[in-house]
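Convert to structure. Protein one:
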Amino acid sequence: MKIEEVLIEDKFITLNQLLKLTNMFDSGGFIKAYINEEGVYVNGDIEHRRGRKLYHNDVVKLKTEETFIVKSNDS
């Protein structure tokens, strides 16, 4: 399994913002629908909140197995 690092400038990023940065979705509407319908794993727990704050070393995994780890310069 390949884990892609997502570098952020601030202390946190929302789940919605992180998924936008991955360029895996065509629009914010697709992201909203995906989170609401499918859910996303954050540190192993299913999450349906787009505004969930993600911090340094949080791990986000989609049901399609793509995995991202948050890395912050401001940690």
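Protein two, convert as well:
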Amino acid sequence: MDKFLAMKMFSTTVDARGFSAAARKLGVATSSVTRLVDALEAELGTTLLNRSTRQVSLTEAGARYYDRTREIFEALDEADASVADRGEEPVGVLRLCMPVEFGRRVIAPHLGAFLARHPALELDIDMSDRLDDLLDGRYDLSIRLGDPSPNEELVCRPLGRFQRWLVASPAYLAGRESVQHPEQLSDHACLRFRYGQKAKAWRLRRGETQLELEVTGPLRSANADLLREATLAGSGIALLADWLVREDVAAGRLQRLLPDWQASPGAANDSINALYLPNHRGSRRVSAFIAFCEGLLAP
């Protein structure tokens, strides 16, 4: 028995939910599929599939075996792609992770053009505001905002920079004294981004003058778009990335405050970085996406 082929027949049967459908997908006779799956079960000494007249389903042992075979086939696909990925054009699957709103607003609108430029490349994207660990191999590349990774095992490639703007809605500002100096922020409802379990003080700088303010307010969250929506609703003043609120400011839905001051939460960095493992140096897939991001983020 060809063990690898039998595993392929078994896995395809599960995905296709039946022997006949699997045979059509593989371009072989149904009897060939059933014979090899039967032989695989006989060699393993266990039943992998429950058979009925309409479809098949996994036994408990079959479910475990299916998961492991999937891992094997995915590893083989990755091995093939890792060789092809050193060619002239990027090919294979690029697994990415990036912050939710940054991915949705800055990256997603341009993905169609990127994929059209690289038709042999497939993107598998997770969007998360968590600092996912690249070391477990789940991702080939991670886009992160702010401080570069402190992990020396990762390559950090700067892609660009952004600013953080103090913004509030006209409705919130109506009837209130205009904010002319950072110290006036202590008199306002400040909507704060939460880093871990706490919100950082706001740091503002103009020339040689630097102030650190422990602002307070009715809301803090680790989701930047939630803070944006609350700011639009007139709940207070927020410190948000320029790429998140630029359109709102241009349309008059939000007003930028203290534009001559540079603002950040604590000592937070304003860089946009690509992180990847050293074994991805020379990867056409990684290089293509980094070049794409650099083009988008160029000043």
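The chain has a mean pLDDT of 87. The first helix runs from residue 3 to 16.
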